[in-house]
Each structure stands twice: as structure tokens, then as C-alpha cells.
Specification:
- The protein has helices at 30-37, 70-77, 87-94, 138-144, and strands at residues 19-23, 44-53, 56-63, 66-68, 111-115, 122-126, 132-137, 148-150, 153-155.
- It is α/β, with parallel strands linked by helices and 157 residues long.
Length: 157
């Protein structure tokens, strides 16, 4: 197995859509990740794991230059309370350590909520290991993940 072969890059759903795996090595910032991946910062997609309730989690896909708007996300999910699991719980649920989490090849299939901005143009999502990413059309990614698409973010402060 090469360094860019991960559970994420081996996800069978990727075989149905054009994409490319980019192995770029570890990065220290969003800007560096964008440069290494050859996309704007807004096209670097962060995958967050959000806890709805005990043992009920959802993936939330967020453009790199934005953050979750918790009020909007609670409204979309119909929940009064949401939280971020600790690193150990996130690993247990996804099979990925923080910084490498992606819905592709995850240990458990979780529903996906994606910010509406993800579905516009080419995006780069984590590839399941440090320094590995997958570049794919945003609309294709959203369709492949059967994501709930909504405005769930706000500009990063």
C-alpha cells in the first residue's frame, strides 16, 4: 500500500466519479493546504463530526474559509443541542484521527450535512491520512454522499 492509499481513497463510491488523489505531505495551515492541493482556501473542505445525542453523530462538511453556524445547523437538524465529540469518540465513530476525518471510507456510515457552498466547483476533501486529499467536483461529492445541502456556516472570524 502506498502512502496515498487509504480507506478513504479506496471508497468504492469514488470509482463512480472523476477525482484525483493528491499526496502532498503534512501541512500547518489552511493556506498551506490550499497551496499544496492547488485549490483556493474556500475549496478545502473540512469534515466535522457533530454529536446529536448519545451514539448519534453526523458529518458536517464546511468550506475552509468558513465555520459552522451552530444556530443554522441546529435548525437544519431539528435539534436543540449539538456538540463536538472529543478526539477519542471521533476516532471510535469514524476510524480516523482528528485532522484526517472524512466521510469517505469512514468506519460507520453517518448522514452528511454539507454547506451549500461545497456544491460549487472543484473541492478538495481529506483523504483519510495526513497529507492526502481527494480533489473532486463539489456537486458530484454531494450527490455521492447523499448529503443534506443547506446554509449551515458563517464566515470565519
Amino acid at each position: 500500500m502506498t502512502p496515498d492509499e487509504t480507506r478513504a481513497t479506496a471508497d468504492p463510491r469514488l470509482g463512480e466519479v472523476p477525482h484525483r488523489v493528491v499526496a502532498h505531505g503534512p501541512v500547518d495551515s489552511l493556506e498551506e493546504a490550499a497551496r499544496q492541493r492547488g485549490v483556493p482556501a474556500s475549496a478545502v473542505i473540512k469534515t466535522m463530526v457533530v454529536r446529536r445525542s448519545e451514539d448519534d453523530y453526523v458529518f458536517v462538511l464546511v468550506p475552509g474559509d468558513r465555520v459552522i453556524d451552530w444556530a443554522k445547523l441546529r435548525s437544519v437538524l431539528g435539534e436543540r443541542r449539538l456538540s463536538m465529540p472529543d478526539a477519542e469518540a471521533a476516532l471510535e465513530v469514524t476510524g480516523y484521527v482528528r485532522g484526517t476525518i472524512t466521510p469517505l471510507g469512514a468506519k460507520r456510515p453517518l448522514s452528511v450535512v454539507t454547506d451549500e457552498r461545497v456544491a460549487s466547483g472543484e473541492v478538495s476533501i481529506g483523504g483519510g491520512a495526513p497529507g492526502v486529499s481527494i480533489t473532486i467536483d463539489g456537486e458530484a461529492l454531494v450527490a455521492m454522499l447523499a448529503a443534506n445541502v443547506n446554509d449551515v456556516t458563517k464566515p470565519q472570524a
